[in-house]
Amino acid sequence: MKTIVTGGAGFIGSHLSELLLAEGHDVVVVDNLTSGRLENLKSVVGHPSFKFANADIRDPSAIQPLFEGVDWVFHLAGLADIVPSIEMPSQYYSTNVSGTFNVLECARRSGVKRFLYAASSSSYGIPDQYPTPESAPIQPQYPYALTKYMGEELVLHWAKVYRFPTVSLRLFNVYGIRSRTTGAYGAVFGVFLAQKLNGRPFTVVGDGTQTRDFTYVTDVAEAFLCAAQSSVSGEAMNVGSGNHYSVNRLVELLGGAVEYIQKRPGEPDCTYADVRKIEKLIGWRSRISFEMGVRQMLERINDWKDAPVWNPASINQATAAWFHYLGDARS
Q: From the CB of residue 160, how many other CB atoms can be counted at a distance below 10 Å?
C-alpha cells in the first residue's frame, strides 16, 4: 500500500513508519517538525520506499498533492500536553480540530481506502468505570483532551455521512524509546529518566498509588496496522495494555530516591482500558510487558541526556496554569 503518516517524525509516528516499511508498504511522512524530530526517522531515511514532506496540516493546499494515489492514511499529527493547551487553546484547536478536518478532506477527495486516527483516552476525563469501555461518558478536563475528541467526532462523522472508511484508536499512556525528551513538562517517563540520569529524586505526584495503563509504543504501532488491514469502519476502539500499573511500581523498576509533589486537579487516579472491543473486532492485543518495556527504556537512558531535569520548583512554575484554571487546591 501507499501510505501517509501525518506526524510521522514524532514518537509514535516514527515507530509506525518503521513498521509499515518493514511490512513492504510505501510511506510518506508529513510533519512540520513542531514537535517531531528528523532524528526519529534516521533508521528509514534513504529507504527506497520512504519520503518525507515538511508540511503543516493546517494548510490544505500544501498537503493535498501528497494524497494522490494514497491507499491508507494514519493521522497522528497534533499538539499534545495539558498545560500548553490551557495556555494556547487557539493553536490546539487549529491543529487538532481544523488540521484533522483538512487531512480528512484531502484523504476523502483523493479516494483513500482506509483512514486511521490517533485519539486520546484523556477524553474520558475522570472515568466512573474501570476498566473503561468505549461507551463511557466523554468528560474532557482540558483543551487538549477536548480537541482530540472533536477530531474523533469529525473522523467518525465522515464514516457515517460520506461512508468514508475510518477508525479511531483511543490511545492509553503510550511509552517507549523515542518518547519526547524536550519541551513542556509532561509524560512521566521523560521526567523520571532525565532525573535518574542526573542523580535527582523522582518527583512523584500525590502518593504514587495512582495507576496508568502504560502501553508500549511498538504495540500501539501494531494496533494501527491491524486496524488498517481490517474492514472495520466508523468505530472508536481503546488501545491499552490490558492492565494498569502504579507510579510507585514504575519508581521501583527504575530504582532511585523519591520526593512527592502536590496532586493535580483534573487527573484521574486510574487509567485502565477495556480492550475487549479491539480484541474482538480486529484481533489486536498488546505483547510487551510493563517490566520489559521499562527495561528497554533503561537500556536507552542516554537518549534523555539533553532532556530538562525537573524539580518541584520548576514543576510548580510549569503547572501554574493547570492549578489556576482547573481548580487550585492550595487556595
A: 11
Closest CA to 297 of 176, 139, 166: 176
Q: Which of 117, 142, 144, 216 is catalytic?
A: 144
Query: Are 101 and 154 in contact, with CB atoms under 8 Å apart?
Result: yes
pTM for this entry: 0.95
pLDDT value at position 183?
65
**Calpha distance 61→59 (Å, rounded):** 6
Bridge-based pairing of strands 211-212 and 245-246 is antiparallel
Tell me phi and psi for residue 50, to 5 degrees: -115, 140
pLDDT tens track for 254-306: 999 999 999 989 889 999 999 999 999 999 999 999 999 999 999 999 999 98
Under a CB-based contact definition with an 8 Å cutoff, are residues 123 and 171 in contact? no
Residue with cell 475510518: 166
Cell numbers linked to 240: 491499552
Write down all domains in the chain, each with its CATH number in brackets.
2-172+216-239 (3.40.50.720), 175-212+242-272+288-326 (3.90.25.10)
Tell me the percentage of the chain whose pLDDT exceeds 70: 97
C-alpha–C-alpha distance, residues 39 and 33, integer Å: 11
Sheet holding 2-6, edge to edge: 50-53, 26-30, 2-6, 72-75, 114-120, 166-171, 235-239
State yes or no: is 175 an active-site residue.
no
The alpha-carbon radius of gyration of the chain (Å, integer) is: 19
Question: Residue 273 has what DSSP assignment?
Answer: B
Q: pLDDT tens across 208-228, in order? A: 999 999 999 999 999 999 999
Cell of 282: 480486529
